[in-house]
Amino acid sequence: MMLRQSGTPWYPTMSLLGGPTVRRWRTIDLAQSLFYGLYNDNARTSTGAKNSDNVSSISQGTDDIEPHHIQNKPIKILLLGAGGSGKSTFLKQLQVLKDEPFTSNDIETFRQLIFNNLIGGIGDLSSIVKENNIKVSNEVRWHFETIQDSGIIDLGDGEPFPIFLREHFKGLWEDPSMQQAWKYGKNTALSENLPYFFSSIDRLFERSYVPNEQDIMRYNVRTTGISETMFNIRGYPAAVVDVGGQRSERRKWIFCLENVTCVVFSVNLNGYDQHLFEDNNTNEMEEALRLWELIIGGGWFSDTLIILLLNKFDLFKKKVQTSDIRAFFPDFRGPTRDAHAGYEYFERRFAKIALKGGRVDEKAVHIFATSATDTNRVRGLMPALEE
């Protein structure tokens, strides 16, 4: 049964795998589950979940319990998933929700990366135009050539966005041929943030521009290597480890698998009709399913709390209106253009793998539908989590 919280957008109910079936709780925030799972060993019982109808009862009884994980080892949260799944955005969201302020250097880096996203987006659109033989006007060619000939790829510290490029960016994005290219690019690993940033060109090119919270959530950069961010959770140090998700980066995962308290595995729901950035012949969702099976069956996390994020549900909900899931997953039997049915189909696919791998009862997996860029959905819960 689907439950909807009053006054909030529809999200599927959160699932906790336990026993032979998928048990459902009312939708609660992914960050709440993360910290709840770390702090309350009673969260997973022999039946797989406490019977609970609301958020308050889920949170009840955690204050008097000394965390098992903190008693035995430091908290280490490992973020895993394929490239483009939203892991790094989830990390930024945690920083905001945990009131860990970004430094002035962080914000300046974000500002420069947003400009990189604009330049990279134009380059990607240009490639799509060529690959698909999309006819463009002389004006569009002039816009492309001006941006390319400027030779500006990066900004220096404090350097504003080059004002003379503003009208070229606007002219390109507003042209019908670029909108056609964008539609073609939806089935590739083209950055999903382009409409957001290109619709804000005038604001971004102001000399006084400073990225706001949504800008920070929306910019995209492919993670390479291993990064570790420290948080303070109820006075205890916690390390959140983010590793690159592209295939070339996964060989580094082996260095992060020890002493993990919690694994957060992120999946791009919106990628069901897209191919990988690094492989045009591999479906992004199929890759995520294979990775999930490896994580569940590999033996590294047999006693580790695992949270599965079926991410970018907001984009998925829009995409299914024009892109039929059955065209890419023929065994999908739900109604066309039904985001709820589509979500449940993919949830079952991942749940089946988890159950096959023995993730039942006290080893249950928490599953959420979420949008990692939507901090407003979860901000109100953080004070209660810290009490």
TrEMBL record:
Alphabetically ordered keywords of this record: GTP-binding, Magnesium, Metal-binding, Nucleotide-binding, Transducer
Keyword Ion transport: no
Protein name: Guanine nucleotide binding protein, alpha subunit
InterPro entries associated with the record: Gprotein_alpha_su, GproteinA_insert, P-loop_NTPase
One Gene Ontology term of the molecular function aspect: G protein-coupled receptor binding
Binding, Mg(2+): 88, 223
PANTHER family: GTP-BINDING PROTEIN ALPHA SUBUNIT (PTHR10218), GUANINE NUCLEOTIDE-BINDING PROTEIN ALPHA-1 SUBUNIT (PTHR10218:SF242)
GO annotations of cellular component type: cytoplasm; heterotrimeric G-protein complex
Binding site for GTP: 242-246, 311-314, 372
Gene Ontology terms: biological process: G protein-coupled receptor signaling pathway; pheromone-dependent signal transduction involved in conjugation with cellular fusion
Gene3D superfamilies documented for this protein: GI Alpha 1, domain 2-like, P-loop containing nucleotide triphosphate hydrolases
Annotated source species: Collybia nuda
SMART domains: G_alpha
